[in-house]
Design the sequence.
């Protein structure tokens, strides 16, 4: 069986949770080749096993080089180790392990390593990972590296998931579509959104911009908007520094949109420092559906 057929078989097992992003009608897997809706909208499995649900190509700064650098930082350094640990703890504490299949959906998953590493730490074996991102380069990499998960190229604005189908929604450093998230979250499901705090990667920002401090992140508006849509159960703040080698500093620059508009001399100066401490400063917002407010501790 080819990788494409294996992925098609995996998707066919869970096909009832997907609907057509164009007309919302149910889908089926045809000939282990395509996802086809009742109105014949057809989305083919790529040979790497992902499905492209976009009807037009999009131009993105998020290219192959950026995702390769992200992949290296996430999987080969410990920069996000604590983030994965905290998120999996939250999931293990809040979602009862059962034999019933449950979907963990990473909205804006990039190259997929966060989802894969979090899933690895979850105690619930019946959890199925699904990642969606608008960048084909990111999803291509995810599908090559993590074959047991389901990967879609798609737009958060046109979710391919049926209502109440997700036990967990992850939204890590990515844009959100709260209206869509509310519909697809199971009644007792959990949404976990990761947002930067003021000191997130501050060394990188200080080195790449002349105007120190001006570009620091403020996440008050994001938190308010989250609270408007979901009942905020908890905010976990993780703040620490991690020492990175010179190679990893180069990866850090390459993985970040911060470097897109920066002078080369600033980048070289930063990466030539050798070992360097980098600050991770993030908030993990944990939410449930508003009607569940009284139902959870
Ligand atoms: C900063 S990256 C974070 C990626 C990943 N969660 C991580 O932390 O490595 C933001 C991601 O959001 C994706 N994105 C932006 N707009 C999107 C949309 N409308 N639908 C789906 N993904 C989107 C980008 O392609 C990019 O991969
Ligand atoms: Zn359709």
Sequence:
């Amino acid at each position: 069986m080819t990788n494409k057929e294996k992925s098609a078989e995996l998707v066919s097992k869970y096909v009832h949770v997907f609907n057509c992003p164009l007309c919302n009608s149910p889908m089926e897997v045809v000939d282990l080749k395509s996802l086809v809706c009742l109105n014949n909208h057809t989305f083919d499995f790529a040979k790497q096993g992902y499905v492209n649900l976009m009807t037009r190509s999009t131009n993105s700064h998020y290219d192959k080089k950026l995702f390769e650098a992200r992949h290296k930082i996430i999987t080969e350094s410990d920069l996000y180790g604590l983030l994965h640990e905290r998120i999996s703890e939250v999931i293990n504490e809040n979602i009862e392990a059962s034999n019933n299949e449950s979907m963990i959906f990473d909205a804006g998953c990039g190259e997929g390593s966060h989802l894969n590493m979090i899933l690895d730490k979850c105690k619930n074996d019946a959890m199925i990972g699904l990642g969606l991102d608008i960048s084909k380069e990111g999803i291509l990499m995810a599908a090559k590296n993590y074959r047991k998960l389901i990967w879609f190229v798609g737009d958060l604005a046109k979710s391919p998931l049926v209502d109440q189908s997700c036990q967990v929604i992850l939204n890590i450093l990515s844009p959100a579509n709260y209206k869509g998230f509310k519909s697809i979250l199971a009644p007792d499901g959990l949404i976990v959104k990761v947002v930067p705090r003021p000191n997130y990667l501050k060394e990188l920002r200080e080195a790449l911009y002349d105007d120190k401090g001006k570009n620091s992140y403020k996440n008050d508006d994001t938190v308010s908007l989250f609270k408007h849509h979901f009942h905020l159960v908890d905010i976990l703040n993780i703040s620490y520094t991690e020492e990175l080698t010179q190679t990893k500093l180069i990866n850090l620059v390459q993985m970040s949109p911060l470097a897109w508009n920066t002078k080369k001399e600033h980048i070289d100066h930063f990466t030539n420092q050798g070992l360097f401490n980098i600050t991770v400063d993030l908030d993990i917002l944990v939410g449930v559906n508003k009607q569940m407010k009284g139902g959870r501790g």
Q: What stands out?
A: The longest helix spans residues 81-94. Residues 50-197+217-240+281-295 form a domain with the Rossmann fold fold (CATH 3.40.50.150). Residues 48 and 142 are 9 Å apart (CA to CA). The pocket of zinc ion (ligand 2) is lined by residues 20, 22-23, 25, 37, 39, 41 (CB under 6 Å).
